[in-house]
Specification:
This protein is of the alpha/beta class. It has a domain of about 200 residues: FAD/NAD(P)-binding domain (3-Layer(bba) Sandwich), CATH 3.50.50.60. It is built from nine helices and 19 strands. Strand 18 and strand 19 form a beta hairpin. Helix 1 packs parallel to helix 4. The longest helix is centred in the C-terminal third of the chain and has 31 residues. The two termini are about 20 Å apart. The structure holds flavin-adenine dinucleotide. The site of flavin-adenine dinucleotide (FAD) has 31 residues, from helix 1, strand 2, strand 3 and helix 7. The site of flavin-adenine dinucleotide has 31 residues, from helix 1, strand 2, strand 3 and helix 7.
Length: about 375
């Protein structure tokens, strides 16, 4: 085992918190620095796969997710009018686990941040790294407030616009806008929405994911050359316009919004950092290395799996260097599949490929992702 005493995690999102929990569990003292002084997360829903639920089990939050969010199986595929066409299976990643789920980001953040502080991680908010200097034994870090510390491993989990990636690989490719934006709202869940739904074959792709017994979120993927900059009330009226002509449970859904929640509009970006994702003793995980578009609902799961695999390889390998090589061997192809297949599904959506062409690649990818990691 590569014994480590002090580890720094940069970024307190899903990947960073997961890494802090698993690495503190190895007996190291973990410092986690998070740029946002309020450690906030925006209030949108996310969909989770069977593989993500397996990772949540390993992180010790599955019971809470099952009790407070939604878990189930299958994606109901409908046409634009709401007519049911079939179900895409969502295979469980482990016997006894559900095949998929949905959760509001603030709830997931709350569960993971509680686990992080309970594990004894030293969380420092409103802080980032300014400089990193690697040598054979560790990394000297200068923080933005001028303080300094030395670590035996630094994990960059600071998201799609990662500063750690910029410090490590200044010439790395930058996230590219894919040509799609995603609109999301949280709404009351009617009893007929028993599982995830896709509404395909129209101008836009629409989906519903339950996030609790009585709530769900709607997502709508719009193909547009640039991200629209809109504020309320234009945001709501534009979303209502995009939903015109859609049937089933969709008409009037804006009126069934969860009070106090807003329309969230985000551009989609994705890319895969060429391997290796480490230099010296600094490693990039999650969106810092492989930000993905949400077509396979796997970004959160890949970030959490990175953290679990990192702890496993550090335990098994004779040195940190060997562990980081083993990490790349286990993670690269799996994350590549998620990023590339998600981008490909997005391209099929943009050219309005036949419905089966869109769902086939989802089904095939979910089957692979449910395999052991
Ligand atoms: C519109 C959209 C919808 C998505 N839907 C889904 C979905 O349905 N299912 C799914 O699984 N995934 C989804 N994803 C992907 C998922 O959100 C990400 O893959 C996941 O959040 C990655 O976690 P992360 O910890 O790597 O990065 P992040 O969640 O981005 O966390 C990074 C953290 O680092 C902090 N930070 C940033 N810069 C610094 C710095 N310089 N120093 C210190 N801290 C810093 C940030 O404040 C943040 O807390 C979606 C993504 C988008 C954009």
């Amino acid at each position: 085992m590569a014994k480590l005493n002090r580890i720094l995690v940069v970024g307190g999102g899903i990947g960073g918190m997961s890494a802090a929990i698993t690495l503190q569990g190895l007996g190291a003292q973990v410092d986690l620095v998070e740029l946002d002084p309020g450690w906030r997360v925006y209030g949108a829903g996310i969909t989770i796969t069977g593989a993500t639920l397996r990772a949540f089990k390993a992180l010790g939050i599955l019971g809470d997710v099952q009790a407070q969010a939604y878990t189930g199986g299958g994606i109901q595929v409908c046409d634009r009018s709401g007519r049911r066409l079939g179900i895409v299976p969502t295979p469980p990643a482990e016997a006894g686990l559900p095949g998929c789920g949905g959760i509001m980001r603030p709830l997931l953040h709350g569960l993971l941040s509680r686990r992080t502080t309970e594990a004894g991680v030293n969380v420092r908010l409103g802080l980032t790294v300014d400089r990193l200097a690697c040598d054979a034994e560790g990394v000297d870090v200068v923080f933005a407030d001028g303080s300094r510390a030395r670590y035996e491993l630094v994990v960059g989990a600071d998201g799609v616009f990662s500063r750690v990636r910029q410090l490590l690989f200044p010439a790395a490719p930058r996230p590219q806008y894919t040509g799609q934006c995603v609109w999301r709202i949280a709404a009351h869940r009617p009893p007929e929405i028993e599982r995830r739904h896709f509404f395909l074959g129209g101008e836009v792709k629409v989906g519903l994911t339950p996030v609790s017994a009585d709530q769900m979120y709607l997502f709508l993927l719009e193909t547009t050359p640039r991200r629209p900059v809109l504020e309320e009330p234009a945001l709501s009226s534009e979303l209502a316009r995009l939903l015109e002509g859609y049937g089933g449970p969709l008409p009037g859904i804006l009126d069934r919004r969860v009070p106090g929640t807003t329309v969230v509009l985000r551009p989609l970006e994705g890319f895969l950092l060429p391997r290796p994702w480490h230099l010296g003793r600094v490693l990039l995980i999650g969106d810092a290395a492989h930000p993905t578009t949400p077509q396979l609902a796997s970004g959160a799961g890949m970030a959490a799996e990175d953290a679990l695999v990192l702890a496993e390889v550090l335990q098994a390998a004779p040195s940190v260097e060997a562990a980081l090589d083993a990490f790349m061997a286990r993670r690269y192809e799996r994350c590549r599949l998620v990023v590339e297949n998600s981008l490909e599904i997005g391209r099929r959506e943009q050219r309005r490929a036949p419905i089966e062409e869109q769902t086939q690649l989802v089904e095939q990818s979910l089957r692979v992702l449910a395999e052991p990691i």
